[in-house]
Specification:
Elements: H1 2-18, E1 31-35, H2 46-54, E2 59-60, H3 69-80, E3 87-92, H4 94-100, E4 107-113, E5 143-148, E6 151-156, H5 158-165, H6 171-179, E7 184-185, E8 203-208, H7 216-225, E9 229-233, H8 239-242, H9 244-255
Helix pairs in contact: 2-9, 3-4
């Protein structure tokens, strides 16, 4: 009987030794997609992208057409469709209105950087309405208009760009930003937003406390409404340029 029991135990031990214990899958590092805003292009993300890539993240910086939240969200969705795995979607300024309108199941987190985060049916103008949120200096003559294929486009007049849009960067950096400025369709400002992605996606918000474009009070309201984890920087509207490391750190929090 004793020998029989030993034989059974030995066979069981051999079977266990030969079995494969499932390994715990390593977490997949998300791809970070950086969506630029109005009056800028993809180069506005250069500093942030460099920090993220140094940290091991794959970074995609698509072109934002700046024609309106619905149109531009569809353009970003086409970019996301070619990305495998989880995505952290980041929007600066008008780019926030765009990512709010993006519908993609792989987006695991949203990050708003001095951005618009409109509610359904709400136009971006809500956040810079001087009657409700005074303080924006993005008004004529700083805000100028020009003819475009879609009608009228808005842009920041070069004479006012540095003091209104990016007062905390050097004159040389401001000049480079002006050279890369892209205008936005004037009607984009009053286009009603669609269903809000932040309603069911974890969100982060980097508020620029010295913003002269989107009043900080409006940013705080939108962040609270979205239930976003909020960080404040003593920065201009262009915090992604003036403080890329701090902005990248928040994006990394969202990615983790």
């Amino acid at each position: 009987m004793k020998h029989t029991l030993l034989a059974v135990l030995g066979a069981a031990a051999t079977a266990l030794a030969g079995s494969t214990v499932p390994a715990t899958a390593a977490p997949v590092t998300p791809t970070v997609v950086l969506v630029h805003g109005a009056f800028a292009d993809t180069t506005s993300w250069d500093g942030v992208a460099a920090h993220l890539r140094a940290g091991g993240y794959q970074v995609v910086v698509p072109d934002n057409p700046l024609r309106g939240p619905g149109n531009d969200a569809a353009a970003i969705e086409r970019v996301l469709a070619d990305i495998d795995g989880p995505i952290v979607l980041v929007g600066h300024s008008y780019g926030g209105a765009v990512i709010t309108n993006v519908d993609n199941p792989d987006v695991m987190a949203l990050v708003y950087v001095a951005a618009f985060a409109p509610a359904p049916g709400e136009p971006m103008f809500f956040a810079i309405n001087p009657l409700q949120f005074p303080g924006s200096r993005l008004l004529p003559p700083a805000l100028s208009l020009k003819a475009s294929e879609s009608g009228l486009d808005g842009y920041v007049h070069p004479a006012y760009f540095h003091e209104v849009f990016a007062q905390d960067v050097s004159a040389a950096t401001a000049a480079d930003m002006i050279a890369h400025q892209k205008s936005i369709a004037a009607l984009a400002n009053i286009e009603p937003s669609g269903p809000a992605a932040w309603s069911d996606t974890p969100s982060w918000f980097v508020v620029s406390a010295d913003d002269r474009v989107i009043p900080p009070a409006a940013q705080r309201l939108m962040a609270a409404r979205a239930g976003a984890r909020t960080t404040e920087l003593a920065a201009s509207h262009a915090s992604l340029v003036s403080q890329p490391g701090a902005v990248a750190a928040v994006i990394e929090q969202a990615a983790q």
